């Protein structure tokens, strides 16, 4: 269905919802969101946000039902494999990998069991929501297994006697531990990603995407960067710069009444660890301030 408004699909409720909504808001979208509504209107731009189950997002983009989607790479890759097997279109464009939704798809077994590699799962029943990613991994290892498809509560499957092992998402590992399981093999690492339908968009919609992308890029870059201010001995400027990632072009300013030191301001592409601060201090730097950056545009 053709609409004049750009359609963006994102997860309705779950791990990616808050961050995705916050990211779009930070790009200037005023989202009129009502919890019970599946479509949220953006008040100040011709954009509609479709709030759906995350599993549906890759298909909506690949079928061109929505223009953009924010989804975990794990779900994207799993859907690709599933659609490939069904002979459906798997085309899309990745616009930007995002900085949230970090997790890994891993194999886990009961804590008391000994792990001697993927081959120890030969013939095992493995519970998962990601049968295609699991099949691909174990096929590469030459291991045959019996998939047990579960769409939730995968971690309880071994205790419930439904499976011998599981293949599920892990972040802190707390859920595995709470269920008496241990992570033994990572099979896929994932983050949230912004994707676009493969077919060409009408010019006005593409113009809107082209307007939003530098804002998104700027927000993500700002989140990854820090503004660092410090006083430095003039004869140690090169050594101090070398300690600050992305500080090729520092701003150097004279300090009133001090001819031996200068003020140095840099945008660093990474957060500054305490260890680096201590090294800066050892080189004679003082008054070191590390500030977050709200927005950036190059
Ligand atoms: N513990 C985690 N930490 C960080 N990101 C995660 C974590 N678990 C999952 N994710 C990412 O967030 C996505 C959504 O996870 P969530 O658990 O909300 O999915 P769901 O239960 O399948 O939701 P839905 O109801 O939309 O189908 C996952 O596909 C993954 O990319
Ligand atoms: O390693 P951890 O930090 O414990 O995270 C892993 C858990 O997080 C996700 O579920 P979520 O909590 O989103 O709930 P869900 O099962 O309802 O999807 C995932 O499916 C795991 O169960
Ligand atoms: Mg889901």
Automatic annotation (TrEMBL):
InterPro entries: ATP-PRT_HisG_long, ATP_PRibTrfase_cat, ATP_PRibTrfase_CS, ATP_PRibTrfase_HisG, HisG_C, N-reg_PII-like_a/b, N-reg_PII/ATP_PRibTrfase_C. It catalyses: 1-(5-phospho-beta-D-ribosyl)-ATP + diphosphate = 5-phospho-alpha-D-ribose 1-diphosphate + ATP. Residues 222-295 form the Histidine biosynthesis HisG C-terminal domain. It comes from the Bacteria. Its main location: cytoplasm. PROSITE patterns: ATP_P_PHORIBOSYLTR. It is found in: Cytoplasm. Feedback inhibited by histidine. Residues 53-218 form the ATP phosphoribosyltransferase catalytic domain. Keywords: Amino-acid biosynthesis, ATP-binding, Cytoplasm, Glycosyltransferase, Histidine biosynthesis, Magnesium, Metal-binding, Nucleotide-binding, Transferase. Its cofactor is Mg(2+). It is an enzyme of class 2 (transferase). Pathway: Amino-acid biosynthesis; L-histidine biosynthesis; L-histidine from 5-phospho-alpha-D-ribose 1-diphosphate: step 1/9. Its EC number is 2.4.2.17. One of its GO terms (molecular function) is ATP phosphoribosyltransferase activity. Catalyzes the condensation of ATP and 5-phosphoribose 1-diphosphate to form N'-(5'-phosphoribosyl)-ATP (PR-ATP). Has a crucial role in the pathway because the rate of histidine biosynthesis seems to be controlled primarily by regulation of HisG enzymatic activity. NCBIfam families: hisG (TIGR00070), HisG_C-term (TIGR03455). Belongs to the ATP phosphoribosyltransferase family. Long subfamily. This is ATP phosphoribosyltransferase. The gene is hisG.
